[in-house]
Amino acid sequence: MFKVKVYVTLKQGVLDPQGKAVKGALHSMDFQLVEEVRIGKYMELTVDHTENVEAQIEDMCKRLLANPVMEEYSYEIEEVVGQ
Amino acid sequence: MFKVKVYVTLKQGVLDPQGKAVKGALHSMDFQLVEEVRIGKYMELTVDHTENVEAQIEDMCKRLLANPVMEEYSYEIEEVVGQ
């Protein structure tokens, strides 16, 4: 079994209205120290043991988990031992 | 300046219909190896240099960024040098 952590973020230059709203909310709560907020997605996948896990994860990210036009993705694959 | 990465995930046991939908979509795309998908949030904050950054981040997570009733959060604080 593998545990895969996928991080999807907006590409630099892509506007992030959700991040802007969160920044505004934080400022209104007196967290003036916050300069910028960018919101992304974090996904945890539990995946069966197969040979080409990395290639398949790459494929999933490109085809479903991220929108390659405006998003970037990265992932970490950890082997789960002892289950 | 600090760059703070905040990860928010659903607590174990909390149902994740969005994750279930993504799992279904992945299965219908022939990624049968996926056993479970849990969807969370990932936020990148750019924060000014202040003394008690960690305490403030903790406070932001508790009060706005995560819902402590059903979500867990973790964060990494990196110092940005040379800017």
What's the arrangement of secondary structure elements?
Two copies of one chain form a homodimer.
Chain A: E1 2-10, H1 17-28, E2 34-47, H2 53-65, E3 71-79
Antiparallel strand pairs in A: 1-2, 1-3
Note down, in words, how this protein is organized.
The structure is a homodimer of 83-residue chains. Chain A is of the alpha+beta class. The first copy, chain A, has a single domain (2-79), classed as Mth169, Chain: A (2-Layer Sandwich). The first copy, chain A, is 30% helix and 39% strand. Chain A is built from 2 helices and 3 strands, in the order βαβαβ. A 3-stranded antiparallel sheet of chain A has the order 2-1-3. The longest helix of chain A is centred in the last third of the chain and has 13 residues, at 53-65. Chain A is elongated and about 50 Å long. The N and C termini of chain A lie close together (8 Å). The relative contact order of chain A is 0.35. Chains A, B: It comes from Salinibacillus xinjiangensis. Chains A, B: GO terms for molecular function: ATP binding; phosphoribosylformylglycinamidine synthase activity. Chains A, B: It is found in: Cytoplasm. Chains A, B: Belongs to the PurS family. Chains A, B: This is Phosphoribosylformylglycinamidine synthase subunit PurS.
